[in-house]
Amino acid sequence: MGTEHHHPTGPRRLSVAVVGGSLTGPATALLLLQAGFEHVTVYEAVPDARPQTGGLLTVEHSTLDVLDRLGVDQSEFVHVRSERIVHTRIRDGRTETTHRVYPGRYTTWPLLHTALARRLPPAVVHSGHRVTDLRTNHGMPTLHFADGSVSRADVVVFADGRASTGRALLEPDRRMRYAGYVAHRGTAPTVAGLAHFERFEPCPGVQFNVAPLPDGADWTLYLDATPAEYTRLFGASPQRRPFVLPHHVGPEARDHVDVAAAGTLTAAQAAVVHTTTVRTAVAVADIEPPRQMVWPVGDGYAALLGDALAPVRPHTARGVNNGIEQAAGLVAALTQVAKYGADLGGALTGWQRRHLPAAVASVRLGPVIGGRLGLGVGANTRPAPEATVPAIAGSHR
Ligand SMILES: Cc1cc2nc3c(=O)[nH]c(=O)nc-3n(C[C@H](O)[C@H](O)[C@H](O)COP(=O)(O)OP(=O)(O)OC[C@H]3O[C@@H](n4cnc5c(N)ncnc54)[C@H](O)[C@@H]3O)c2cc1C
Fold first, then answer.
1. Could you state a single Gene Ontology molecular function term (predicted)?
2. Residues 167, 19: one domain?
3. Within 6 Å (CB) of ligand 1, which residues are found?
4. Domain check: are 274 and 146 in the same one?
5. pLDDT tens sequence across 32-87
6. Closest ligand 1 atom to the C-alpha of 132?
7. Which atom of ligand 1 is found nearest the CA of 311?
8. Domain that holds residue 64
9. Cα–Cα distance, 83 to 13 (Å, whole number)
10. Which entry of 2, 182, 320, 387 is 20 to 30 Å from 162 by CA?
11. Do 194 and 208 lie in a common domain?
12. Residues 322-378: pLDDT tens digits?
């Protein structure tokens, strides 16, 4: 006990490059720094300017515990004390409301991002660095950037989100596929009396979620749209424009959502939608479940984490949780290498074996939930991968 330098690579020698400075990336870097790694760098494509608005994120206890151990106090990012989901379904004309305890807390992207990013030493973060390629140089994984610069590391961690460059390089065949429905989204002015996450399912093919934000109410209305309808509403196909920014939501798209809200929601809920001036939308999409999380690159390795590895449908509520749980596991494995001389490849394989099943399960869960809600089950979509197909087909055709 007490000896730290068992291995030639030593605790100070293993270098880790993290690609992505949103949530999974900063959490990975902070965990590495806390574990004593000194050669840690975060590369983020977008320069500092970040959107100041952001929708709700659900953070499970496992992830909250990782944040706690990083010294990130919940008061910094948990903006409502609620642990409740109020779920209302209308079936055969009867309204049925249940209250469920959510095993976690609610936060928003800006709150959690800020809480993590402000703890990273400025020298660690390189903003405005867009990764374009991964090659080897003198046996080491080497990142190439849009500005022509390069950077080498023993381990490259891609936490670069659902449109991951890392995934495109390591697994070019795993592509996102439109699931046939859209998450229309907005932040309404404060809604009186809204204290919990509320979910409303008036009929198959419609789900409405609304939850309090620090400065308003975050709502999401899920509605089917064929690829042709999507293109008409947002000016480009779901493949070309998976994230619809406010300036792409024109009068026709606004009307489409307002009419659907008026026709399916309560008057109060429809008013929440109508009063929202800034709107966005996301094309709900699926991907083949991951088969691998780590790849040898020269004498080093590259790994995919978070949305880069397994972008999930929003209903799974696993987005931020997968990435941060994987990051904690990865740093535990790398610590065995750095501190006790464990074999790097073996440690990473063990990490993959522990975390891959959860990532696969959450990718498969999305189409099951979507099918149950009657979303995206139309002829315009192929339900996602293998194991989910019988479940969806069985329950909805
Ligand atoms: C600005 C922003 C706002 C968000 N708001 C919400 C929200 O309101 N509700 C919600 O449910 N989810 C939101 N998300 C998504 C949510 O963060 C993820 O679904 C989940 O938490 C997993 O996070 P992640 O860190 O793995 O990936 P992401 O959050 O997608 O982060 C990936 C990061 O990698 C960077 N990046 C991408 N490509 C490159 C590259 N080639 N080189 C360098 N950097 C690169 C991106 O700029 C981004 O910062 C948001 C994401 C972002 C980036």
1. FAD binding
2. yes
3. 19-25, 43-46, 50-51, 54-55, 57, 109, 130-131, 159-162, 165, 306-308, 314, 319-320, 323
4. no
5. 999 999 999 999 999 875 655 578 999 999 999 999 999 999 999 999 999 999 99
6. 41
7. 19
8. 10-75+108-175+287-372
9. 43
10. 387
11. yes
12. 999 999 999 999 999 999 999 999 999 999 999 999 999 999 999 999 999 999 997
Asked if 160 and 186 sit in the same domain, the reply is no
AA identity, residue 251:
P
Q: Whose CA is nearest to atom 11 of ligand 1?
A: 57
Mutate to test the pocket of ligand 1, among 31, 77, 107, 109 (most ligand atoms within 8 A of CB): 109
Burial 204-238 (b: 16+ CB within 10 A, else e): ebbbbbbbbbeebbbbbbbbbbbeeebbebbeeeb
CA of 181 to the centre of ligand 1 (A): 21
Q: Do residues 219 and 308 share a domain? A: no
Counting atoms of ligand 1 from 1, which one is nearest the CA of 55? 8
Domain count, the chain: 2
Q: Whose CA is nearest to atom 36 of ligand 1?
A: 160
CA of 196 to the centre of ligand 1 (A): 25
CA angle 262, 96, 396 (to 5 degrees): 75
In DSSP notation, 262-309 reads HHHS-HHHHHHHHT--SEEEEEEEE-PPPS-SEEEETTEEEEE-GGGT
